[in-house]
Write a structure and sequence with these properties.
Chain lengths: ~400, ~400, ~400, ~400
């Protein structure tokens, strides 16, 4: 099977899933052409969901040409070149592997999957597909936050010297209230984990990306503050973590501390990063996503500079609005779509790859293992993902 | 001619103009259905511009079914029900009056027009059209910033008591550099005025809206810090203001101070408002448009509360993203489009009306007049706009 | 009579007044030696107040060797070399003039006096005394806020280019509540003016100092939001302003807007300054007095830098605490005392001089005059204070 | 030997040590009477230091009646009732134990001592002295920061519900530069530990105090980023930590994460605390020590409230300055002195006691032990300090 990219036609896109993430990704495909004229054109071919009525309605609202209820059928369509998987994590593996086999470029919303084993399998499939010119990417959308992309650039340019400490957190508060009800997200069998998988995955990807380095060992702790909640069938044990902590050793020699929580009263979507280097530091808070704090040691009267990352010269912003006209959270998905389309057109490996998604899963697994062993340091396997998988 | 709203078909929209504002409005029409499912459906019928090639390209990129070069021809189309005017101010009057006469609902980007006389004529046309069920609105998009809409609600509910002082500014810095070149925006004949018309118009509308009150008298000052700039034909006088100041008396008895500038180094899009009442205060900065500062005198340990205006219960946010997932500047146009569609569907007068746009123009004119007379206080005519126009 | 500075003995200090300002100045004299070892030693000789018992108690508490009830008697003492006047403004003139005549160095808390005429008389007395080596200074303590002193330095060094706009305010809220009682501060006959004299005087001095420029013309407005309050003798008219606004033209060509208020709910001691120049800007808020915002246009990724002004190299801080160990409001009086002592020892004219205090009074008077004439622009007399006084 | 408090005479104070901490404590004793009139009067009797000349000079500058070079001799003086130990940690034990034996009330600057064993010995001596009415306290001055004292009150009152998570850090940057020279503070034998003992001790005391709870187990990590520095005798190994991390389990069930560093570029004195409870949260940053962030879940439009902790009704502030007139870092020592004097006068056990200082030392020791064992969780001995010591 050969690469599915057409030469002159728009790339047909199918999104699988139409709830929160399906809506966010639909928004991206609807808008990518307006802000990234140089990206290859994409066409919102079909939105896939289980419920025919709701899927049809969502498709109409979100700008899709068609609605469908079977993702398998979509893989057979010639007018679909990109499959964008926005379903819950448990189905990621099967859809992704099948789509790659069918020659479709695949974007998978994070986490890559719910288990390391599945992620390894997906990574192998992606590597194989890449040999056929079929591309894949995992949806860590915060890679595209312009302020974080700028942070990455500044680190790469050595503007803050050698990175030593990263202090990171992702704090939300939607489970603060102990009377908030039980949901599938609070059961281990359906959700895999709690704040760890949902929030720490973003943080770990950022830490590895910004430092261009990998986590090699972790100390971890998990905790559930509200141990039981009321469900449809009465009182029920919460079997995932409300909060998680990790101290990570990075291959570069830096150390990163991570704290994530869903019971941090007053924090709505508080992904914060402080990156300390030998010659400066950076700071970021997702609730103010257009801003990057930059401190450079050099020069008189040093101090933390609030850079409003809305200039045309800043990453991803060459074709949006004038300076100071801030962007929203949803724009990061539009940027992600543009990057994916651009990589496909250039026949270039997109990033973050499935292998990068797998690397995050392995860190999460190590945190869980450490947490089960009094927090003692656990090594993160660093072998090549494909080799490791084949062993 | 009867009202143009169809009963079952989507409302066909034409946008006139395809540069900065045309892009922003196109974005709104492309996305309004996704976030406001209860709004009547709209269809991006046609984008109008002078240059055939560039208009066609923009139409394709921004999601329009067609491109056209004549706004007059668009007024004749049966599939166009809404005309959205995004051209420079000097053409607003003619297009708007013709479109209303043709039975099209009209949205005009602010300022309503470049002169009070034209604005009066437009306001009369709008009033007449309203008797035929044809609606009109002026595009003060900041009315829709959720934090500012919340500010309006809190004032209305008496949460900060009786408003006494408003301290407002709109500071930008794109003309800071004296070597920045001459443009049509810096010539009085083409631009009408400088920071005053461009920036103070937004501020005055906000002040009047939030306080539910009108400016009755003003002291004004205008200043041009860089008196000459290099143009295509050599050195040329700048004939509009770089900055403007006004102290406004409001019909409610409150006093508002206003400062606007295009040479405020370091401020990119800094519309800031502080509203002081007898029982509390509010504060806002457009560069952090998802936040509203709320201070209430009551209760122990008072202080300025940073409210992240991203809750489902906040204005305009019932169908966007979860709490803490911030919105961008462009979202305010989507909200504006939803409001306009909703008003059309309900056959209800949209706000801000042309009369409200005219009221802002009259305040701007009074500021200019005061500035020409050593800043002495100038009354703002408060008569009914239609009556005033007919006199 | 010759200069009173001893060569080897500590300078004996008398403070006149022991309430709020007397306490703040006492604190300064008690601590100046600890933080400014290079300043000539000062001795807390005597605290003067009307009430013998309360003055004695205050003297003991604040570290004074003695208490006294007559300021006249203090002027006769040989062990008093410095007279520091902390009484209400109405008595400043008589004490200062007598003290200067008696050969005492005089520090007068701001405002210099309640009237321009008295201030002129004091300025003449100071000029005459200076010819005898007797020094005088007015207590605009905010000149010594390290962040503001740094602001002055940066402007002087041209770091933000030519200053164009200054946006200044001093907002407090202690009169927000309309049931707050009548006091002498709200009567014109005792207080002179309201927010204008109390708060705008500080702001005007800062504006003139930071820009090294003088106000040459003003548009002013005054307003009293709560027109009557309950006093001991029943309901009584408030005869001073609750808030004041001014737009000032500076001799340098810059324009400064000023807003002051005592009814700005939620602002406790909010003196804020934004200084916009052709190459950068500065910002300051007294409620965070250890910080200066610095924006410089040059360089990549510009932004407002929060400089924590606590480094040994920053103004006034060579002998305080390590970086980041913040100072309080009271420290500014200690710095003021050190400056005054240093000037005396060096037989150098201290600043701000009485002439500088008079200049501020003249601007305040012009604001009042403008406010009485619909806000029309009023010139501020710029003649030499001594000449002007003699004319 | 009986209690040394005189009935009518001021309490005579001796401070041992005259560098950084001696200066800060001197400042407190010099000013405590001015701000705490109800505290028993104190007299600055004698300042003790090794170098006769420098001590004499410091004594004169800091307001001491006398200087001395032998702390032993001071213990014999009848006019000394309070001994305040500001020497390096290694001498704390001997001076404190001797002073207590001599019937002097003892204030020891933190850390209580450099070792757990010494701290246990001191705690036993303090308990014995207490039976004689002789009091002792350890100088965790941040207990007195008004904003932190308010935080403690709010937690105690249940305003944020049950505390679940504390996120704490103390970040400085004075060792960021790898060329900063070797000092005694970077050698284990002289300094005990690095950032851990210096900075984490403050944080741990705060965490335990604010939550009214004790750390029962910790995971720890220490790291030295700059392993060698240039000393007087050439290149030398740094044998203490530059940074430390700990995850602490509290007896209340809460979990606290702690990160401290001396290489956090851009943070000067950044002690920050975020306390998350079941009904709200608090936040604090020492670089803005007059502010407390308070979030309460209840009520509409929740958000983080910036409380300026400068009201007369706030802890410690009944007799300072008007609202908004901010205090400096040094004021916390004045408050500490007032608390100690008040406890002595009332014959009441001061807090933080030596036992509380010991408790902090035990947590630090557990962090070190955990760090030596791959970060595995180490229990903190919770036994009664005296009993534990005797075992």
């Amino acid at each position: 099977m050969s690469m599915s990219t057409p030469t002159s036609q728009p790339l047909g896109v199918a999104v699988i899933g139409h709830s929160f993430m399906g809506k966010a990704h639909s928004n991206a495909w609807r808008n990518v052409g307006a802000f990234y004229p140089e990206a290859p054109p994409a066409r919102q071919a079909v939105l896939v969901g289980r419920d025919p009525l709701r899927t049809k309605e969502a498709a109409a609202r979100y700008g899709w040409a068609e609605a469908a209820t079977s993702w398998e059928s979509v893989l057979e369509r010639d007018d679909v070149h990109v499959v964008d998987i926005c379903t819950p994590g448990e189905s990621h593996h099967d859809i992704a592997v099948a789509a790659l086999a069918a020659g479709k470029h695949v974007l998978v919303e994070k986490p890559l999957s719910n288990t390391v084993a599945e992620s390894e399998s997906m990574t192998r499939a992606a590597a194989e597909a890449a040999t056929r010119g079929v591309h894949s990417m995992v949806g860590f959308n915060y890679r595209r936050v312009p302020a974080l992309a700028l942070a990455r650039q500044l680190v790469e340019q050595g503007r803050i010297g050698e990175v030593r400490q990263v202090r990171a957190s992702y704090l939300q508060d939607w489970l603060t209230d102990p009377t908030a009800p039980m949901t599938w997200r609070l059961r281990r069998e359906s959700a895999g984990s709690g704040a760890l998988g949902d929030l720490a995955s973003h943080v770990i990807d950022q830490v590895q990306h910004i430092t261009a380095s990998t986590v090699t060992g972790v100390n971890g702790r998990l905790h559930t503050f509200v141990a039981e909640r009321d469900g449809d069938a009465g009182r029920e044990a919460v079997t995932v973590d409300d909060a998680a902590w990790a101290t990570c050793v990075l291959s570069s020699g830096a150390i990163a501390s991570i704290e994530v929580s869903r019971v941090a009263a007053g924090r709505k979507n508080g992904l914060s990063l402080e990156v300390f280097g030998s010659e400066g530091s950076l700071s970021f808070d997702l609730e103010r996503l257009n801003e990057l704090g930059v401190h450079e040691e050099h020069g008189e009267h040093a101090g933390l500079r609030r850079v409003l990352v809305t200039e045309e010269s800043h990453p991803y912003l060459q074709a949006w609005w004038p300076p100071g006209h801030v962007l929203g959270w949803d724009a990061t998905f539009t940027m992600q779509a543009a990057d994916f389309l651009g990589a496909i057109a250039a026949d270039r490996a997109p990033s973050p790859s499935f292998a990068e998604g797998l690397a995050v899963q392995r860190v999460l697994a190590a945190v869980e293992q450490s947490a089960r062993h009094l927090g003692t340091c656990v090594d993160v396997p660093a072998e090549d993902p494909l080799e490791g998988g084949r062993a």
